[in-house]
Write a structure and sequence with these properties.
alpha+beta, Aminopeptidase, Alpha-Beta Plaits, 2 domains, six-stranded mixed beta sheet, five-stranded antiparallel beta sheet, 8 helices, metal-binding
């Protein structure tokens, strides 16, 4: 392993548990302005002194501003690091960080405050080597977990040489795994317009929105084909209808999570939802569009250079979950995700980071950043 990477990763890992404890202590579900601002302030405090900190408009209206930390250098290449501070865990279910055996357990620990801690540590490490880069930037958004608006940050980082996202890491066949392929993701929203009626004395005068939504849910689920050519997954997830136990529900809504290799396959699912069912009008729309990411070929040389710096193999992997890396992949071909620590139970109050993974994953992150900057070995790092 490159000697500088080994030393810098050890320092990042030494500080990471305390920094993760501080960040996880802040409950920051998507859309919560106070939690997002508190996380941004904490991350700014953990940034290197040389960095410029700025707040920029979030992609989602009514959210707190996102955070951009820019580290200027004297080199030639620019690399973007990406993370998010929002979680899916509500205030009521939030749990602060606690050490349970080999696990650091707490809400948002692995998705993805653990990754943010490693990204901030990497910035501090490279702050001492400004000759290696023209700019390192870290973008931390506060709406990744439930964004339906278009992602607004791609033009802001036009011309960057690489994008590295710090979602959770993994092992792949015993090697350090990083993500170079992700599915496209979409959220289908179906609104039912029926007619209410007394369910005891006049049930047939109503038009049951709940039953119509059940038909729509079955239509979506019928397209589920993870082993098919598009690797399509189509899963109804939320159904709301009815206001009283003795009233035919006259309205309601359905949400479905749909993922595939390309957005076209997700758009096609919409065509299989009926426009009407037994007097109930159904309106279906795709309210969330995340592009796919296919960076295998473009990133293969990068992973080879990083492997040489690390002294052990970095393996490419595919993942079904979406992330903001996908939004950058079309304009920044050298896009790699999954640089964060290993852990589990994401989107759960008891999600965790494996403490022993902090140092090796910091080494992976430093090696990939160095490789993206064109460093070839100890003489240049």
């Amino acid at each position: 392993m490159d000697a500088w990477i080994e030393r810098a990763a050890a320092d990042i890992a030494r500080r990471a548990p305390r920094e993760l404890e501080a960040l996880v202590a802040v409950s920051s579900p998507s859309g919560d302005v106070h939690g997002a601002n508190e996380c941004a302030s904490l991350c700014a405090a953990l940034a290197p002194d040389e960095a410029k900190v700025e707040r920029v408009p979030c992609s989602s209206p009514s959210h707190a501003e996102d955070l951009v930390i820019r580290l200027p250098g004297t080199g030639t290449r620019r690399v973007l690091l990406v993370g998010h501070n929002d979680t899916v865990v509500s205030h009521a279910e939030h749990k602060p960080l606690a050490r349970v055996g080999e696990q650091l357990v707490g809400s948002g620990a692995v998705d993805m405050k653990g990754g943010n801690v490693l990204a901030l540590g990497a910035l501090r490490a490279f702050a001492a080597r400004p000759e290696l880069y023209a700019e390192l930037a870290l973008l931390l958004v506060c709406d990744e977990e439930w964004r339906t608006a278009d992602f607004s940050h791609v033009p802001r980082f036009a011309g960057f040489d690489a994008c590295l996202c710090f979602e959770a890491g993994e092992l792949r066949d015993g090697a350090e795994g990083v993500v170079v392929r992700r599915k496209a993701a979409g959220t289908i929203h179906v609104t039912a317009h029926g007619r209410s009626a007394h369910s005891g004395s006049a049930p047939d005068r109503g038009a049951n929105a709940l039953l119509a939504l059940a038909v729509a849910a079955q239509a979506v689920a019928s397209r589920h084909a993870p082993a098919g050519p598009s690797h399509l997954t189509a899963v109804p997830t939320i159904l709301r209808s009815g206001e009283a136990f003795n009233v035919v529900p006259g309205h309601g809504e359905l949400f479905c999570d749909v993922r595939a290799d390309e957005l076209d396959a997700i758009e096609d699912v919409l065509t299989h939802i009926p426009a009407e069912h037994e007097g109930v009008r159904l309106e279906a729309e795709l309210i969330r569009r995340w592009p796919g990411m296919q960076a295998e070929a473009a990133t293969e040389p990068l992973l080879k250079r990083a492997t040489a710096l690390l002294g052990r193999r970095i393996a490419p992997a595919a993942r079904g979950g979406a992330s903001d890396a996908s939004h950058f992949a079309a304009s920044i071909p050298l896009t790699v995700d999954g640089l964060g620590p290993r852990g589990g139970k994401a989107h759960n109050p008891d999600e965790f980071v494996l403490e022993a993974s902090l140092r090796p994953r910091a080494e992976v992150a430093l090696a990939l950043i160095a490789a993206a900057l064109g460093c070839a070995g100890a003489s240049t790092v």
